[in-house]
Design brief:
The complex is a heterodimer of chains A (191) and B (182). Chain A is an alpha+beta fold. In chain A, 19% of the residues lie in helices and 29% in strands. In chain A, the strands form two sheets. Chain A has a six-stranded antiparallel β-sheet with strand order 1-2-3-9-5-6, with no helix packed on it. Chain A has a four-stranded mixed β-sheet with strand order 8-7-4-10, with no helix packed on it. Chain A starts with a helix and ends with a strand. Chain B has 182 residues and is α+β, with helices and mostly antiparallel strands. Chain B has two domains: 29 residues; 146 residues, Immunoglobulin-like (Sandwich), CATH 2.60.40. Chain B contains six helices and nine strands. In chain B, the strands form two sheets. Chain B has a five-stranded antiparallel β-sheet with strand order 1-2-8-4-5. A four-stranded mixed β-sheet of chain B has the order 7-6-3-9. The mean pLDDT of chain B is 88. Classes of the chains: A alpha+beta (191), B alpha+beta (182). Chains A and B meet through helix 1, helix 2, strand 5 and strand 9 of A and helix 1, helix 2, strand 4, strand 5 and strand 8 of B.
Amino acid sequence: MRLLFGSCFTLLIAAALGLGATWFTLTRGVAFGALTIGAWKAWPKSGSADIDPYARAMVARTGELPTGMGDGVAFYARTDDVGNAFDGRCTFSISGMTPTARYWTVTLYTSEGRLVANTIDRHGFTSEEILRDNDGRFTITVAPLARPGNWLPTGGIEQFILVWRLYDTAIGVATRTTKEGPMPAIERKGC
Amino acid sequence: MVRGVLWVLAAILLGGIVHLSTVLAMPEAAKQDAYSRLAQLTPVNAMAPLAATKAGAEIMPFMDPAFAAAVCRYDLSDGPLKLIAPVSQGYTSVTFYTRRSVAFYAINDRAAGRHTIELDLMTAAQHAQVPEDEEVTAADRLVIESPTTMGLIVLRALAPEPGLMPMARQALAAATCRIQSQ
């Protein structure tokens, strides 16, 4: 009797623990070998045959196609530099420099990776179209309401993700230091 | 008491096995992975342009809206595949994915070094059958080995500004992918 109870208890806990851990890791996006620069995180290996099993499972679940390593590298940010979560009702400013790349794009997504509808059809910027000051620096204002300059509309959604993609770049698996890859600073300006 | 601790330890161990096996089984079990999504929209062994990435009409999550894209959903059972893609003015890349969305090879226009990207895709078995002398005479042709018989080739062309999107789409429209006649 005791044995039966014990094994049932064990199997139940095991199933809950195992499935819970799988659900948690796949929805939260746990992947190994992240390259972190400020608030930006990239997983260059996810774009190659060396992709780890967690990233592989996540990609299969979401249905996305990772950026290939010979193509470029994608940096994801979910918070500003001090850890404030991206909230579409607040204003964030992104400014500074990017690592050397032939082209880059920055795109705003919902947490599911969808674009946010807006009247000006603006979902991001490319390195060619962004407005820069005389030093070649730029500032992007991510805000729910229209702003002068490089305005990236949030649509007022609760959570968003920014993805910075560098195309044809030396940044990748071998990048170790922030000096090699200066990513733009992210600052919350107000809510 | 000791027995209780043993049961808990067994539960944790078993839980770990359940966790790892579900993570490893996920790519096989996923019903909405990129290949499945594209299987409904694209033919086999032919290049098909993808509709522009627009809010509310995304084919896959996390697509870069600054790019025009075309897909060749391949099946190498009938022989090797030849891909020819003219490069656009901006930036063009080709990425090869397995049936399970693993990006096993990617190349951009500059690395390809010509005005057209020309690649031969074949399985390891088909590569082994290529006569050696033929490989020497065609030394400049790029051969890619696919780890799986089926998969996806995704061609991407950047529109550096929104107004250049028609140019990017046009460049992709000239790309072809077809099974090579033996």
